[in-house]
Model the fold of this input.
Amino acid sequence: MLQDCILLSGKDVEAAAAGHESELLSVVESAFRDWHAGRVVSPQKTSLIFDDVTQSRINCMPSGLPAQQVAGVKWVSVFPENPKMGIPNVGGLLILSNLQDGRAICVMDASSLTELRTAIVDALAASYLKPNDTRVMAVLGTGRQARSHAIIFNALFEEIGEVRIAGRNPAHVRALASDLVRQGVPAASYDGDYAAAVGGADIVVTAISGQEALLKRRWLGERVLYCHVGGLEDEDAVAQSASKIICDDWNSLKHRGSPTIARMYERGLLADDDISGNLGDLVSGVISPREPSDGLIYFNAIGMSIIDVAVANWIYQECSKMSIGGSFVF
Done:
């Protein structure tokens, strides 16, 4: 018997997720608990790196959630130089299959899914690790990840009263800040002044497509949460001065050549014992959230397929209920 497969565009993914940030946060938190408890099937990501300098790559990320009777694989490209040509730096698709008979039930755009998942994972970390008196967020970068982080953090943390935006192109900074303000985000343009944007911020997010140690430790306050999104974005001193370093999955992250702390591990500047734990440990109560003695906390997510599949399954279910998207038959 033939079965329709739902086809979801990036706009479909965004439409389903809009206004459901808290629900998605719970979905991601639950998936991390399942992963921590060993209730998932999650092999290592395969990363095909085609340029060691730019870290242009295509990732193949499979995983399964037996309890939800669903599995999926994300085939996603990350080409950091693309924005220079006016092309998004992240692209690809995710295929979702049911575990009753293995048939594909959904194909969706991976760019919007990745943006959503990345920002929700960082927001989950922030819910445990941000300072209690958080008021100011700084976002370095002007691309889609920068936008999604600003929107999702603003939706989830009502105490944030200012979102500072800074980037390499002041025109792009101003355009993003203006667009965010129209969407109800209290954004302010800091043009290319990274130091001013970061100074005094309680949460700092770097979402930069280049490969440059841009963020300096001297710009950061003593009690701050730093969320590292991409590859080489900060100098070694940032991680070296952290009270806690927490990852989504350190074992996966440390073998990737792109993130700052993975490069530090390769050079012997960080060891396994320097990592406080994974996000699954945090949400399961194995390690403590922010404590009064904590200063800078460093969070880095490499991206886990099990979280992509959990979010994708929620999106699929929501779009099915709302009759969003097209369909085709294999």
